[in-house]
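Milestone M4 deliverable, item 7.
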Amino acid sequence: MQKPALELKGSSFTLSVLHINTSDLVSLLEELDKKLAQAPQFFINAPLVLNFSEINQQAIDLSALKQAMLDRQLILIGIAGADEQQQQQAKQLGIAHLKMGKHNPLPPPPPRTCKIVKQNIRSGQQIYAKDGDLVIFGAVSNGAEVIADGSIHIYGALRGKAMAGAKGDINAVIIAKSLDAELVSIAGQYWLAENLLQHGAKKSGCIRLAGESLTVETLPE
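Output delivered:
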């Protein structure tokens, strides 16, 4: 039997949501450029949803904002929290308006494997643990990336980027003996170095997902 040309199936994807707190494009793009400069490779061709809840009832040039994001290799796929005028702009530009409601996704199955690396991860290196946890006996240097579909345990300094729960595991954690990371991410939710400092990251810590936000806990010495 010949398979149909197309099939419509439900699915779920991890998307980053950029919360827009001002309609001033100049200041908005200046701040965006600063964040992109901190982790440029992480954002290339990243699909984004813009949340307009904080600028509801304010005029914003969505066409110019979309073009500015394309110029920065960001892909705008939808907006949320928009008023009627903002929704009309989005419709004319072929951008979806998403209703962001609360949901309780089923947790994915536990990781099946554990990848152990007994060396320092140098700048420019990338280590990926597919369908499992990643354990590193060493340091992760600036410019290095460690990625796991499960949790990441680093028995050394984390100075580069660490991305756990890469396939959406919301129960994944990042544990490091020393937290000085350029970027940490769990199931698509991320913090940059400045966020870690704001949340009082200490020498050692455990980063986990609490709802839709990251949180860090200091580990006992």
